[in-house]
Design brief:
395 residues; four-stranded antiparallel beta sheet; Pdz3 Domain; alpha+beta
Length: 395
């Protein structure tokens, strides 16, 4: 076969198997059956469609397991050594699962991860409720490759204490530095600001004691870690983690090969096509709340007249389906729920207005073009004509 036909064959193979991924869950398949079918099709694609495939054997299986665990817990703050020991029985089984054996490794690791994540999320509030002693010399290892998994819960909690102390110390130091840089400026006892002659807010320096700065640093870290765990738990779904598992397989085969779940595939297609189907509203995250940042003129959200700047999005529903509570969601995750696969489909937003009133807004998605993603060209005339081509991205 001529080599010039190989890329075409590979694209056709990928396309046919991608369709298979999209339809595997239909016909009453339960999630486990669907995942097993997807796994087998991924294996088939890698072995028969990849340009330079590795052998999917026991050695490959062992590396996939190692990669998946590291992807879930790179800094070794979630799993414990007993979990890692229990995973070793799957060292030589993932290749068999790819080839059709019952899928067990993913569910065992998923269950342990979920349990340990919930356990770890309970530590930070208690630890950050008390002041840290920064006069005490302590060491912390930040390189995940040099860290060891905790063998006891007390050891794991101590690891988290040091990690949180390190984060608080960084913010506390920044606050001390800011205070030092402003020590010669006029100080006021409150945080009150004044309005300048041109309408701009003039920030006044407020002197604060060390203990106050330390407490504020702990509060900032508490919010930061709270958002961190909320994000992890939001993504801690069977579909999200299964995608990570399959990507550990494709990544071990080749770092440039990726598996896209349907919602991720839609995002990739939107990026490549330069258009998507949505409501024309930009979102922002403010104090762990999803709010409307702006409306695009002429788009569904703007035309409805029912959404306004700073409206808080509480729930999102597809048509008549049950709404999803997006409290604590990252903006990117809320956007995935609002966007759809085609124009004219319905999305319902439950929003809270700035005055506290709550209402449900029903919108039809429209096509929105991403002009910045398109290639552009121009002829620059002069003594010589110069052709100019602008490519915003290249892959």
């Amino acid at each position: 076969m001529s080599k010039k036909f190989l890329p075409v064959l590979l694209v056709l193979t990928i396309a046919s198997l991608f369709v298979a991924f999209q339809t595997q869950g239909r016909g009453g398949d339960n999630p486990k059956t669907k995942n097993e079918k997807i796994l087998r099709n991924v294996g088939l694609l890698l072995e028969q469609g990849h340009y330079s495939p590795k052998n999917i054997n026991d050695s490959f299986s062992k590396q996939v397991l190692k990669r998946f665990v590291k992807d879930l817990d790179e800094d070794k703050s979630i799993f414990m050594q007993s979990d890692i020991d229990s995973f070793k029985k799957y060292d030589n089984k993932i290749d068999d699962e790819i080839h059709g054996a019952k899928l067990e490794s993913f569910y065992a690791i998923n269950d342990s991860y979920t349990r340990r994540l919930n356990q770890a999320s309970q530590y930070f509030t208690e630890i950050l409720s008390k002041p840290f002693d920064f006069t005490k010399d302590e060491n912390i290892i930040l390189d995940g490759d040099k860290l060891k998994y905790a063998t006891t819960e007390a050891e794991k909690k101590e690891t988290w204490r040091k990690r949180l102390k390190y984060l608080v110390l960084g913010k506390y130091y920044d606050m001390l530095e800011e205070r030092e840089n402003n020590k010669n400026k006029k100080q006021v006892p409150t945080s009150a600001d004044s309005i300048g002659t041109v309408g701009k807010v003039i920030k006044k320096f407020v002197y604060k004691a060390d203990s106050t700065l330390e407490r504020e640093a702990r509060e900032l870290v508490k919010k930061q870690i709270g958002r961190y765990f909320t994000t992890l738990k939001t993504h801690n779904t069977n579909d999200e983690l299964f995608s990570a598992f399959v990507n550990a397989i494709t990544g071990e085969m080749d770092p440039h090969s990726n598996y896209f779940a349907p919602v991720d595939s839609r995002g990739f297609n939107e990026m490549m096509s330069g258009k998507f189907y949505g409501i024309g509203a930009q979102l922002k995250e403010e104090e762990s709340k999803i709010k409307i940042a702006s409306l695009i003129t002429g788009m569904p959200a703007w035309k409805s007249g029912e959404l306004g700047i700073n409206d808080e999005v509480i729930k999102i529903a597809q048509g008549n389906a049950e709404p999803v509570d997006v409290t604590g969601y990252a903006v990117a995750d809320a956007v995935k729920l609002i966007r759809g696969s085609e124009a004219g489909t319905e999305v319902r937003l439950t929003v809270r207005k700035p005055d506290g009133n709550t209402k449900i807004v029903v919108l039809k998605r429209g096509e929105i073009k991403l002009e910045d993603t398109f290639a552009k060209s121009a002829i620059i005339k002069g003594e010589h004509k110069i052709g100019y081509i602008y490519l915003p991205e290249f892959y």
